[in-house]
Design brief:
This protein is of the alpha/beta class and 176 residues long. The chain has a single domain (21-170), classed as Glutaredoxin (3-Layer(aba) Sandwich). Helix content is 43%, strand content 18%. It has five helices and five strands. A five-stranded mixed beta sheet has the order 3-2-1-4-5. It is globular and about 45 Å long.
Length: 176
Amino acid sequence: MRQLLAPITIALLLVCSVSKAELQDGQPFPDDFSPPIIGGEDLNLSDYDGKIIVVAFWATWCRPCLEEFPYLMSIQRQATNEHVQVIAVTWNESRRKARRAIGNLPDTGFVFAIDRKGRHGESLGVGAIPHTIVIGADGIVKYQSIGFSETSVESLIEAINVELSAKQQSDGQVEN
C-alpha cells in the first residue's frame, strides 16, 4: 500500500506545483496585472511608472492583514505618492464587502483593487495573505513577504528604503 501511495503523492505534488505560477524576486512584475480598481476601471501599472509599488493582498476577515495596514499607511504617507504607491488588493472577496471595509478606513492614500475570485493573486503565486510585494521603479520584484510580523515589517521598510535610495541615485538627487 505504501508503495502505491508514494507515486500518487509525488504526482499530486507535481500537479499542484505546476498549476500555480510563482513570482520570484529579481523577475519583472507582470505588466498585465490588472484587477479592477474600486470605482470601476482596471488597474494599469504603467500609471505608476518610475514609482516603487507595494502590492498588498488582503481581506476584510484577515486580522494580520488589518494589523499590517497602519504600517503600509505610514509608508505611503512618509514616502508620498510621488515616490511610492501602495496598491491594496482584496483577495477572494466580494466588491460589496471590500467597499464597506474600505469605507470604514481612514484616508490611506492607497489604490484599492479587487481580486474577487483570487485569479490575479493566483497568477502571482498568492496562496496565503497578507502577501506583500515590493516592485522597484524599474518594474522588477524586489521583495515579498507572506504573513505579518514585526520582522516582516522591518524587512519591508528596509526593501523600500533600498529602492528609494536607488531611485534617488538614478534620478541624480543624491549629493556626493
